[in-house]
Every structure is written in structure tokens, then in C-alpha cells.
Design a protein that fits this description.
mainly alpha; globular; single chain
């Protein structure tokens, strides 16, 4: 199964602990996201995407600050300005939020990225770059789920709950993109020290 609750808890505790020690503004924002668990960075991405009315995939400073506030990030205006300037490399007054999210993700080795993509490809039966309920039918057996067994949920509800793990807390659309899957596992990865252990965990979880 996806990142375990225990990893999530450990990571959140670790992030909160490190938050008091770090002064780097980007690291502080990253830790605030991770303190919310594996889906934290992805959630911020969704908030920004909703704000990007013209689909330009860029944000100006006002939108950036509003996004941080909407997501209840404790960051003052000076710090936000500093982060914005780090990402606004060409000084255009806008930042590319895909680039922003990739930088915000805890760094992962190529070995970890590769195993995450293997899991994604296995789930994405149709190969269109998005995992949906249809994709899961052939890969994930809902009938073992306790809520299916006791009659609380239908098969589709089990699938949907499974996808919601990876989906963003604020905008669950039942579709999981490569980026969301990667952001989710970047969160899980942050709580696992060695590549070997991370790869074993992924192989076991997804039978790769």
C-alpha cells in the first residue's frame, strides 16, 4: 500500500522538529508542507493550480502570497518575498509553479524516482499518464478491503478511497497524475533514509 501512516507520523514529527532549527526560507516552506504528511506538497500545488485562472502555470507575487495564506502556511510577507525572488530567476515578476513544486519536493535519487515511475506505469493500465478507477480494476483487488467485505462500500468506493490517498486534500477528482504520484512519494521518501529500504518497500507494496 502507499506510504504507511507510521511513516507519515514520523515524517510530520521530524519536519516540525527541524522547522525550529532551520532559517532557509525554502526549507522552512518545505518542512511546513511535510509537517502535514505525504500529501502536503501536493496540496499546496493544487491550491496554486486552482488560483491559476488563465492556465498560464505561473503565479505573480500576489497570487503566490494568497496561495500560501489559503493553505494556512505560517510565512510572513518578507519571507514570502525572499522565496518568490529565489524562484523568479529571470526577474519577470512571475514564477513557474511546476518548477516551484519540483524544487520544494524533498530531493530524491534517480533510483527512487525510477521505482516510483515503475509503480505508476503498472497502475496506469491505459498508459495515458493518469491513473483512474478504470485503470485500477485490473491491478488492485478491492475484494480484500475490509469495508468491501462487510458491505459498507462498493468496489468503486474502495478504488476511489485508494486514489484519494494520492490525490490532493483540497481537490479530489479521482484522477492521479504522474506529478501527484511523484509528489506523494517524495513525501514518503523524506521519511526513509536509504534507497535500498525505499526500493524494497515500493517493490513489496506494488509487487514490482
Amino acid at each position: 500500500m502507499p506510504g504507511t501512516a507510521r511513516h507519515d507520523r514520523e515524517m510530520a514529527i521530524q519536519a516540525k522538529r527541524n522547522l525550529s532549527k532551520t532559517t532557509d526560507p525554502v526549507e522552512r516552506l518545505r518542512l511546513q508542507c511535510l509537517a502535514r504528511g505525504s500529501a502536503g506538497i501536493k496540496g499546496l500545488g493544487r491550491v496554486f493550480r486552482i488560483m491559476d485562472d488563465d492556465n498560464s502555470r505561473t503565479l505573480d507575487f500576489k497570487e503566490f502570497v494568497k496561495g500560501l495564506n489559503d493553505y494556512a502556511m505560517m510565512i510572513d510577507k518578507e519571507e514570502a518575498q525572499e522565496i518568490f525572488q529565489i524562484f523568479d530567476k529571470d526577474g519577470s515578476g512571475t514564477i513557474d509553479f511546476d518548477e516551484f513544486l519540483v524544487t520544494l519536493r524533498p530531493p530524491m535519487s534517480n533510483a527512487r524516482k525510477e521505482i516510483i515511475m515503475q509503480a505508476f506505469r503498472k497502475l496506469d493500465k491505459t498508459g495515458d499518464g493518469v491513473i483512474t478507477i478504470e485503470d485500477l480494476r485490473g491491478v488492485y483487488n478491492a475484494k480484500h478491503h475490509p469495508k468491501y467485505q462487510n458491505g459498507d462500500w462498493t468496489e468503486d468506493q474502495v478504488f476511489r478511497a485508494f486514489l484519494d490517498n494520492f490525490d490532493s486534500p483540497y481537490d479530489k477528482d479521482g484522477k492521479v497524475t504522474t506529478e501527484e504520484f511523484m509528489n506523494y512519494y517524495a513525501g514518503v521518501s523524506a521519511s526513509i533514509d536509504t534507497d535500498v529500504y525505499f526500493i524494497i518497500m515500493m517493490k513489496n507494496a506494488w509487487k514490482l
